[in-house]
Amino acid sequence: MNLPFKFISKFPEETEQRAEEFGSLLSCGDFILLKGRLGAGKTKFVSGMVNFFCQAYDSRYNIVTSPTFSLMNRYFCGRDKSNKEIIIDHFDFYRLKNLYDLENSGFFDSLSSDSITIAEWGDKIGFDYTNIIKNYYFEVNIAVNEAEGGVITENLYREIIIEKK
Ligand SMILES: Nc1ncnc2c1ncn2[C@@H]1O[C@H](COP(=O)(O)OP(=O)(O)O)[C@@H](O)[C@H]1O
Ligand SMILES: [Mg+2]
Fold it and tell me: Domain holding 134: CATH number?
């Protein structure tokens, strides 16, 4: 997969599969920001990324769910060749209220650690954290084809763009 990568996804499984391919481009400490409306498929995409790491390095199967209430889910994906544990921190800031919550969520700790940090609704953060991320990050934009009047149904396709910024 070469970035930027743009594709149409007609099924949830397709989104997940592409996210697995994208996962193979990632390394420890990377930050991935996901954008798109509620029900767009952000969590599905995260599931694909986590699947890639769990299949590549482990064993244990992680079930990816939306961390909407806890703000963060942590997935342990096994160990790499140098026996370092691969950790993915999955945030969902849809319900983020303030900087206090953000600090308590562990987001800053995750960004400055070796774990892979993923954020749904990262655009709700409202705080400049660019100085604590690497000199690049990845952004995934999922747009739902809403020609049918804004109602999300199972048969609306998604246009997904993956970029390195
Ligand atoms: N092409 C597609 N890609 C991803 N999800 C899809 C697609 N088509 C239908 N869906 C459905 O849309 C929903 C997406 O949910 P989720 O990943 O939780 O969204 P978000 O995290 O953006 O709120 C799922 O129920 C999924 O089955
Ligand atoms: Mg979600």
Answer: 3.40.50.300
Q: Domain limits at 153?
A: 5-164
Give the pLDDT confidence score for residue 145 in this predicted structure. Answer: 82
What CA–CA distance (Å, rounded) separates 53 from 72? 18
Q: How far apart are CA 121 and CA 93, in angstroms?
A: 5
**Whether the CB of 126 sits within 6 Å of ligand 1:** no
The reply to whether ligand 1 has any atom less than 6 angstroms from the CB of 66 is yes
The CA 156 to ligand 2 mean position distance, Å, reads: 17
What tokens appear for 36 in the block? 């798109």
Distance between Cα 149 and ligand 1 center (Å): 17
Helix (H) or strand (E) holding 70: none
Q: What is the Å distance from ligand 2's center to 138 Cα? A: 17
Q: Give the pLDDT confidence of 118-161 residue by residue, as tens digits.
A: 999 988 887 888 788 878 999 999 999 876 555 655 567 999 99
Distance from the first to the final alpha carbon of the chain: 16
Q: Say how many domains are in the chain.
A: 1
Site to probe by mutation for ligand 1, drawn from 11, 16, 18, 44 as the one with most ligand atoms within 8 Å of Cβ, is 44
Q: What is the pLDDT of residue 40?
A: 94
